[in-house]
Amino acid sequence: MAKNAVPEEQRRRRRPTKQGTVLTHDLIVDTALRMLREHGAQGFTARRLGLALGADASALYRYFAGLDELTRAIADALMHRAMTGWVPTGEWRTDLRDLGLRIHAAYLAHPQAAVLAASRVSGRAHEIAADEAILGVLRGAGFADPAAVRIYHVFVDQALAFAALDAASLALPVEAREADEAVWDATYARLPAETHPHIAATSQLLAERMNASAYPAALDLLLAAAASEAPSHP
Amino acid sequence: MAKNAVPEEQRRRRRPTKQGTVLTHDLIVDTALRMLREHGAQGFTARRLGLALGADASALYRYFAGLDELTRAIADALMHRAMTGWVPTGEWRTDLRDLGLRIHAAYLAHPQAAVLAASRVSGRAHEIAADEAILGVLRGAGFADPAAVRIYHVFVDQALAFAALDAASLALPVEAREADEAVWDATYARLPAETHPHIAATSQLLAERMNASAYPAALDLLLAAAASEAPSHP
DNA sequence: CGACGAACGTCAACCGCGTTGGCATAAGGG
DNA sequence: CCCTTATGCCAACGCGGTTGACGTTCGTCG
């Protein structure tokens, strides 16, 4: 049955669920995103998604060949939200910085979805549009193709990787994060300077930094390194 | 029963399994690592681990409160392996590059552990040792404390984030990865130059790159950006 | 040297997961 | 108004983590 799922053609017949709602690709994806935001990734299952839709879990298989395909659709919806409203200025560093922060933020808004989706190739329209835009900015700035592709690869994977990492922290159960903070206070903040001089000397700076995402700093370093390769600034 | 698992005190009673082996924390962790390396993460389950040990899966719960705790122990062993044998050369770029690749490789060798461990502060001996080493390399190279801490933060999170991302790809079931490849071939490789000129122009380069990890390139870009801030090379 | 009690492996069972095949039913065209 | 077909529902399968009860084994103490 898995292979019989309708891909994306128009649907004709509509039959309401027992609770009156009518299923759609979009409705399923939106509900999935809401579930992920509210209850976390570990609480996201096909059965619960069906329940939230007022439908049986097996009804999902009329729309997606499996959870795999549904995950791809979720990833693409995230990318759609990241890209809407973006307009290039023509200055490549500004444009890339904007795009990176947008993608990071879109995934962070749905932490659990990010963890699920970051490692998948969705191959859908919005992901492709983002890829084309990033490559376009780089090639438009005059980077030769090998350099453009290399920087593009790092840029995309870095955005997704940091988003997934930060999202995973956000998605932790409360007691886990409290435990992590307690571990920090009990170890890093009290390391003697004799055995761990570098941590001890910078513990104040460390404490300020480690609670925030490293992505903005990482993005700036990436752009700086790219700029030193750029043809316009040799 | 989960909370009754013995943490790390000495054990006194020993009782052989039906096939003669005697269970230990270390034996369980080593067997788990071997299973992960040989059969991949998708085949790693508590039941199969029990089978590989010649024991019932439920016997594991005498040693670990659950799969989470077992995974954390695996992660600790991973960091241990990443750091053993590392000796600083005194040249900070070489040292940081070596450390980054070591951590990334150690986590990649055991994908499931990477995904679970990357977002947690373990606060255990080996993690602290790694942090002290990285900070030491940066401060030893003459970076001022704020810059050292900033680069340290990006370096650590970048290594973990890419490791987790790459690990998540590796941990996917085989069908999922085949599906991703099929999606790639069906879309990116066939985009017309009229609508997607940049992807079409670089599709050959893209196909070569996207199957590999972006981490080595990302690491090199980070080191290049840091070098341009370094006091010795102003 | 014998018995006791704790340590610990085993068994059977529970519940939830993704997924599937068969069936029931509603929608919409003729 | 009926008939086809899309589509939701149900029951079931195999597999996952986890648990409680049970019985065996071993170190220890008298």
Describe the protein's architecture and organization.
The structure is a homodimer of 234-residue chains. With 234 residues, chain A is mainly α. Chain A is flat and about 70 Å long. In chain A, α3 packs across α4, α4 runs parallel beside α7 and α4 packs antiparallel against α11. The first copy, chain A, has one domain: Tetracycline Repressor, domain 2, CATH 1.10.357.10. The termini of chain A are far apart. Chains A and B meet through α6, α7, α8, α9 and α10 of A and α6, α7, α8, α9 and α10 of B. The structure holds a DNA duplex (30 and 30 nucleotides).
Task: Looking at this protein, list some descriptive labels.
homodimer; 234 residues; mainly alpha; Tetracycline Repressor, domain 2; 62% helix; 0% strand; DNA-binding
Quick description:
2 copies of one chain form a homodimer. With 234 residues, chain A is an all-alpha fold.
SSE inventory with pairings:
The structure is a homodimer of 234-residue chains.
Chain A: H1 25-39, H2 46-53, H3 67-83, H4 92-108, H5 111-117, H6 125-140, H7 145-171, H8 174-186, H9 197-201, H10 203-210, H11 215-227
Helix pairs in contact in A: 1-3, 3-4, 3-5, 3-6, 4-6, 4-7, 4-11, 5-7, 6-7, 7-11
Chain A binds a DNA duplex (30 and 30 nucleotides) through loops.
